[in-house]
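Researcher: Checking consistency across runs. Here is DUF995 domain-containing protein again:
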Amino acid sequence: MTRTIAILLAACLAAPRAAEAAGPQSADVSAAFGNTLLTIDPDGRSRKIWLQPDGTWTGLSRRGLDLAGKWTVKGDKVCLTQSKPRLPGSMCERFPPQPGASLQTKAQGKTVQLKLVKGRVTD
């Protein structure tokens, strides 16, 4: 179950921007600051993730348990490591580029919706 949380949290993490004229595409996570990234499972239950500009993130699991870790940008993806509860390794993924946007991804064989919501949603 904890591994599932980590995979779905990681699935939330990259906001692509247009590639610069002479350079590769790079994730721009600034739209996530002050907003909530939801990972919504097929059953409708969701996790909430909040990225901070200092490279940390916090969140709430499907059950309302506290989550936390650090994030970094790698190309057009954002990678999360999870320290609360502690999980080894990191997971990298793209995520919606602006509040109101969403996309779908696969996590452990399930289609998961990633949605960036304006403001800090806690319920």
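Researcher: Does this match what you'd expect to see?
Model: One thing to look at in this run: Residues 1-24 have pLDDT under 50 and may be disordered.
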